[in-house]
Write a structure and sequence with these properties.
Largest sheet: 6 strands, antiparallel
Number of domains: 1
Oligomer: single chain
Number of strands: 8
Strand content: over 45%
Order of helices and strands: EEEEEEEE
Radius of gyration: 16 Å
Helix content: under 10%
Shape: elongated
Protein backbone atom coordinates (compact mmCIF):
# COMPACT_ATOMS: atom_id res chain seq x y z
CA UNK A 1 0.00 0.00 0.00
CA UNK A 2 1.24 3.47 -0.78
CA UNK A 3 1.06 5.39 2.49
CA UNK A 4 3.01 8.64 2.50
CA UNK A 5 3.09 10.71 5.67
CA UNK A 6 2.13 14.35 5.19
CA UNK A 7 2.64 17.20 7.70
CA UNK A 8 -0.56 19.24 7.76
CA UNK A 9 -1.94 21.65 10.36
CA UNK A 10 0.45 20.58 13.13
CA UNK A 11 -0.35 16.90 12.53
CA UNK A 12 1.30 14.00 10.74
CA UNK A 13 -1.35 12.45 8.48
CA UNK A 14 -1.19 9.05 6.83
CA UNK A 15 -2.54 9.26 3.25
CA UNK A 16 -3.46 6.12 1.29
CA UNK A 17 -2.44 6.51 -2.39
CA UNK A 18 -2.74 2.94 -3.70
CA UNK A 19 -3.58 -0.51 -2.40
CA UNK A 20 -3.45 -4.18 -3.32
CA UNK A 21 -4.46 -7.61 -2.07
CA UNK A 22 -2.00 -10.50 -2.49
CA UNK A 23 0.09 -8.30 -4.79
CA UNK A 24 -2.84 -7.52 -7.12
CA UNK A 25 -3.36 -3.75 -7.51
CA UNK A 26 -6.97 -2.72 -6.87
CA UNK A 27 -8.89 0.43 -7.89
CA UNK A 28 -9.09 3.22 -5.34
CA UNK A 29 -12.91 3.29 -5.41
CA UNK A 30 -12.81 -0.15 -3.71
CA UNK A 31 -10.32 1.06 -1.12
CA UNK A 32 -11.21 1.46 2.55
CA UNK A 33 -11.20 5.09 3.72
CA UNK A 34 -8.83 6.10 6.48
CA UNK A 35 -8.52 9.11 8.75
CA UNK A 36 -5.23 8.65 10.58
CA UNK A 37 -3.09 11.28 12.25
CA UNK A 38 -0.54 11.83 15.01
CA UNK A 39 0.23 14.98 16.95
CA UNK A 40 1.89 16.17 20.17
CA UNK A 41 -0.32 18.01 22.68
CA UNK A 42 0.46 18.84 26.31
CA UNK A 43 3.66 16.78 26.12
CA UNK A 44 1.75 13.67 24.98
CA UNK A 45 2.02 11.85 21.67
CA UNK A 46 -1.61 11.56 20.50
CA UNK A 47 -2.94 9.33 17.73
CA UNK A 48 -6.27 8.78 15.98
CA UNK A 49 -7.06 6.01 13.48
CA UNK A 50 -10.41 5.50 11.78
CA UNK A 51 -11.03 3.04 8.93
CA UNK A 52 -14.30 2.69 7.03
CA UNK A 53 -15.53 1.38 3.69
CA UNK A 54 -18.21 2.91 1.44
CA UNK A 55 -20.14 -0.39 1.39
CA UNK A 56 -19.79 -1.50 5.03
CA UNK A 57 -19.40 1.76 6.95
CA UNK A 58 -17.14 2.07 9.99
CA UNK A 59 -14.73 -0.87 10.41
CA UNK A 60 -12.54 0.29 13.29
CA UNK A 61 -11.78 3.45 15.25
CA UNK A 62 -9.22 3.88 17.99
CA UNK A 63 -7.37 6.75 19.56
CA UNK A 64 -5.16 7.38 22.52
CA UNK A 65 -1.88 8.81 23.69
CA UNK A 66 1.56 7.94 24.95
CA UNK A 67 2.95 9.91 27.88
CA UNK A 68 6.67 10.04 28.81
CA UNK A 69 7.34 8.74 32.34
CA UNK A 70 11.09 9.16 32.78
CA UNK A 71 14.19 10.90 31.52
CA UNK A 72 15.50 7.65 29.94
CA UNK A 73 13.00 7.99 27.11
CA UNK A 74 10.64 5.28 28.30
CA UNK A 75 6.92 5.79 27.97
CA UNK A 76 3.70 4.27 29.14
CA UNK A 77 0.47 3.78 27.27
CA UNK A 78 -2.29 5.83 28.84
CA UNK A 79 -5.83 5.77 27.53
CA UNK A 80 -9.24 6.53 28.97
CA UNK A 81 -11.41 3.53 29.81
CA UNK A 82 -14.30 4.83 27.72
CA UNK A 83 -13.95 7.10 24.72
CA UNK A 84 -16.96 9.15 23.65
CA UNK A 85 -18.20 8.17 20.23
CA UNK A 86 -18.38 10.77 17.50
CA UNK A 87 -21.18 8.84 15.75
CA UNK A 88 -24.48 10.58 15.47
CA UNK A 89 -27.60 8.51 16.34
Amino acid sequence: MGRPIVAEGGQLRLILRRWSILGLPLPMWLCPRSTSFETVEDGKFRFHVEISHPLTGLIVRYRGWLKPVGSQGSSEIVSPAVLPSSRQP
